Amino acid sequence: MPKVILIAEDDDDVRDLAELVVGDLGYEVISAPDGAAALIAFRAQAADALFTEIMMPRMNGQQLVAEIRRLNPQLPVICTSGYEDIGDKQVPCEVFLRKPYKADDLRAVLRRVVGEPNEGPAVRAW
Length: 126
Fold this sequence. Notes:
Elements: E1 4-8, H1 12-25, E2 28-32, H2 35-44, E3 49-53, H3 61-71, E4 77-81, E5 95-98, H4 103-113, E6 122-125
Parallel strand pairs: 1-2, 1-3, 2-6, 3-4, 4-5
């Protein structure tokens, strides 16, 4: 069964980079431009982990994590933000990855939190 990573990121360039890194590792990617779209995507297809920006319009990462944890309390969550006053104490994440992060850091976190990837990449956007 393919391992699916749900990416919620409002910055198009950062989301594109995250999709590329995660997809190149071989994970299947579901991508969303904000928390509300990510929640809709998660309800349509469960994911093996959530990688979310904390500060987003419509539904921020903290709200998204709370809603997804209601649906799946064991889902691993990796949070990210470039805001200095945001940290892992405010959102229940397994890992907090401060922006700007390196692709190698994201790779290492995914392998540690989710496990080894699939055989080939696939990306779906919401």
